[in-house]
Amino acid sequence: xxxxxxxxxxxxxxxxxxxxxHTQANICAGCFRTIDEISGWSNMSAAQRKEIIKELPNRxxxxxxxxxxxxxxxxx
Length: 76
Known about the structure:
- The chain is mainly α.
- It is built from three helices and no strands.
- It has helices at about 35-40, 45-65, 70-75.
- The mean pLDDT is about 85.
């Protein structure tokens, strides 16, 4: 006998339990959502969630861009 497990037909949260908000980009370094998106996730429609999910890869790139570090400070 197979047990039936009821699941909601919703988009899962992109949360990866790395909850650190990047101070300049103002997005979570783990899931790349804004604080407003994170806090309102459970009240969003599936369409709203899909739109946010589609934007996340572009947001991830913002955090991966190097800002120059030591080489920039030294003028190299």
